[in-house]
Amino acid sequence: MCLAVPMKLIKKEGDKGIVLSMGVEREVSLALLPEAEIGDWVIVHAGFAIERMDEEEARESLKLLEEMWSS
Amino acid sequence: MELVREFRDSSRVNILKEKLEGFAFKNEVKIMEVCGTHTMQIHRFGIHQMLPENVKLISGPGCPVCVTENSYIDHAIELARAGFTITTFGDMIRVPGSYSSLEKVRAEGGDVHVVYSPMDSLELAQRSGKEVIFLAIGFETTAPTIGATVKKAKELELENFSILAGNKLVPPALKVLVEDRNLGVNGFLLPGHVSVIIGMRPYEFITEYGVPGVISGFEPVDIISSIVLLLEMIEKGEARIINNYKRAVRDGGNPTAQRIIQEVFEPVDSEWRGLGWMEGSGLGLREEYSEFDAEKRFQVDVPPPREHPGCRCGDVLKGIINPPECPLFGKVCTPENPVGPCMVSSEGSCSAWYKYG
Ligand code: SF4
């Protein structure tokens, strides 16, 4: 149920959004993530965007991992 | 998102594997994962084979369909037989109840629909005019999607939609597991997308038992590095909650989703397969939303539940046995012909062991 790849939000209208998932457009509800903006990568669960995927945090985690290995 | 690929990168995985091999424990160390998707990924990527000596990964009650008790499935079956339209997530349909399954009832003419989103049930209710009942199962990740759907139904003043409330909460189950001395869990791999909703705080109490927890994503680098973090803490005798899935999990969770859960639901005692009744471990509808409560609205006779003879799914969910220790595993019970729910769901332990070993 949780193996969601992040999808890019390309349209937003009220609490509805359109995401691009492997080239296919899909409608999602933004009721749980009203702050989502066009261009955001979002995690989708059961037709709802539940959170933004944070690229900066992703980079930070990879950096931390690298530090972990070199120690 | 290109970056996600980096969390699958094999050179990173190899370095982490070496890191894992560097650990040495004299006594057995048990790490429990409490998310069905983690279970599936752990088997898929062969993570069991990477573990150092004396370290064991055991599966907990992380598969939503698996922990759903027979009496709930029986109830849904009787509602379908009584002529109501049932909508449900796909995994549920093949799960055997005490005497039948929704799939069989559908073959007998029952009106059972698989939906991708709970919202689809609203459309069906509007379109068909029939009395539609959605089977509300799942953990904190799913609860707000159902809460938002119920709120929408109220807004639309829909009179032919309701839910059979059965959502469950992870922290109360963790409490029972961490207190179980026979089980002796030394660390928890915490569910990524449940944490997206609830954040870190609801897990803090497990550290009071001297047990650490790490919130993990689902890629191999996520899972293996989370195990490394757990083993480091266990080695040092530290007990903290670490968020190792920061790209998705905010420390405070998703406040909008939390608010919707709060508004629509309230904690109730709930029965879990394998773990029994646990205080405050389920979600029921609040009084203000009771018009959407199928259990209150429609009376059907549900026969007394019974367990599947020989099935040890309950023990699997508690981490007491591994699936191959069940005498039916792979012989009588296979994904094509499942005896118990742990073999039906792709997130179930029995199915993960069967598919990937
Ligand atoms: S292998 Fe089948 S019968 Fe055995 S515990 Fe798993 S689901 Fe139940």
What does this structure look like?
The complex is a heterodimer of chains A (71) and B (357). Chain A is α+β, with helices and mostly antiparallel strands. Helices cover 23% and strands 41% of the residues of chain A. Chain A is built from one helix and five strands; from the N terminus they run βββββα. Chain A has a five-stranded antiparallel beta sheet with strand order 3-2-1-4-5, with no helix packed on it. Chain A is elongated. Chain B is an alpha/beta fold and 357 residues long. Chain B folds into three domains: 11-62 and 170-243, HypD, alpha/beta domain 1 (Rossmann fold); 65-168 and 253-297, Rossmann fold, CATH 3.40.50; 313-356, no CATH class. Chain A binds chain B through residues 1-6, 8, 29, 31-34, 41, 43, 45-48, 50-51, 53-55, 57-62, 65, 68-69, and chain B through 1, 3-4, 6-7, 12, 15-16, 19, 35-37, 40-41, 64, 89, 91, 116-120, 138, 141-142, 144-145, 148, 151-152, 191-193, 196-197, 218, 221, 225, 228, 244, 246-250, 254, 256-257, 260, 347. The site of iron/sulfur cluster has 14 residues of chain B, from helix 14 and helix 15. Iron/sulfur cluster binds next to helix 14 and helix 15 of chain B.
Total count of helical runs of at least 4 residues of chain A? 1
Q: How would you state the average pLDDT of chain A, rounded?
A: 88
Strand order in the largest sheet of chain A: 3-2-1-4-5
Strand content of chain B: 15-25%
Widest β-sheet, arrangement of strands of chain B: 2-1-7-8-9
